[in-house]
Amino acid sequence: MCVDVKQGSWHGGALLLSALVLFTVAVVALEPRSHALVRGCDADIYRITFNTIPNGQQSGAAHCTNPSLLVRRISYSDFICRGGEGSCGGRSDIAGVTPCYSAQCWIMRRSVMSAINHCSYLTNLGNLLECGRFGVLLFRMRNSRSARVSLIGAGNIGGALAHMLGASQVVGELVLVDVAGGMTQGKVLDIGQALALLGSDVSITGSSDYAAIEHSDAVVVTAGIPRKEGMSREDLLNTNAAAIKGIAESIAKYSPEAFVIVVTNPLDAMVWCMHKYSGLPSSRVVGMAGVLDSARFSFFLAQHMNVSVRSVSAMVLGGHGDLMLPLLKYSTVGGVPVEDLIESGRLNRDDIAAIVERTRKGGEEIVKLMKTGSAYCAPAASCAHMLESYIRDKRSIMPCSAYLNGQYGVSDLFVGVPVVIGKGGVEEVIEFPLTAEEQAVFDQSVKLIRGSVGAIS
Description:
Strand content: 15-25%
Distance between the termini: 52 Å
Number of domains: 2
Structural class: alpha/beta
CATH class of the largest domain: Alpha Beta
Number of strands: 20
CATH architecture of the largest domain: Alpha-Beta Complex
Strand order of the largest sheet: 9-8-7-10-11-12
Largest sheet: 6 strands, parallel
Low-confidence stretches: 1-143
Shape: globular
Radius of gyration: 25 Å
CATH topology of the largest domain: L-2-Hydroxyisocaproate Dehydrogenase, Chain A, domain 2
């Protein structure tokens, strides 16, 4: 929604803004010639162009200030005002709200999940904010669905993920980037037309130029050579590492504040490459693996027990591959740990061992059946699950390839562990106590990952 406040129409504009209080915490009038919007709930953020309202007989800088966005939380207080004349702070008009005045304000184009501790200014309004000049307040409410997400790699996973995100309307803007420009544009048209049938207004564009990812809130990287029958993840190591290096440098250039999810195999080593070459904080680089492995384990276990998959919760550790480690005492069916189900005779260890092995080989099984392709629906759904937790600040606990700095006795390595994902990215690594047997398998997985990282040339 846009509100143009023109001379003589301020009262009507104020009434219309007041009606928007239903969607916000408050609308606060500092002075008769200015209005400011206080940030609403955690899911809301706004794009605002601020100018001054005519101030009667007053003139000259000594008699006029240019108010910017009022923000209820201090961590958001410098969204728009930065630099120029004037100062931020100085007094508090209402509890928890600090007004900020400056001769220069900026168009804000951020979304809630990446705004904390990060400000991005696109357009300097400059002379538009001269005191007493005819003023316009452009108001446009934004929310978590207005996130801008870029997908690098428009193949099967990228295409499926774009369709899922567009259909669910978790995001507002989708950008597909792939070196195969024609294929990307075709996929964008196909997905966009499908979204039209679903009534989704999510914007979707495609490009072969990495510059298109600029100002993304999140980036999902699926680009790389796919695994084919008979090919191990390690066979892909150096080829895909080179590709990730170039992508990482582009992300650092165009979207240095983005939350990055890597899907490219061999997963744990590629996440390490992304972190190294992008220079992004470790909390904003993560690999999608454990979510997929947990889904596969839950699916196979639910099938075996003939129960709804909604009743099954699984947790896995370790690398994405043959040494993936399901934690049976933290995996449940109907809230009952799998270990207890084994002890009670509802399950036997041979059945669980077979399910674990099938989970570890889940990707390989699909490759063998498809002959010329690999899994893409489940990996895409796993990425969507991670993105939703980040965009909506759900703080969900899920297993991901995350940076360890002493946790589980591992340092300077990305390994699959349970983490909390919220608006700060990876906000916490959760450490579970392991049995001696589990620790041995986990250590083997770490050794394999470290070897892969060391082999990158």
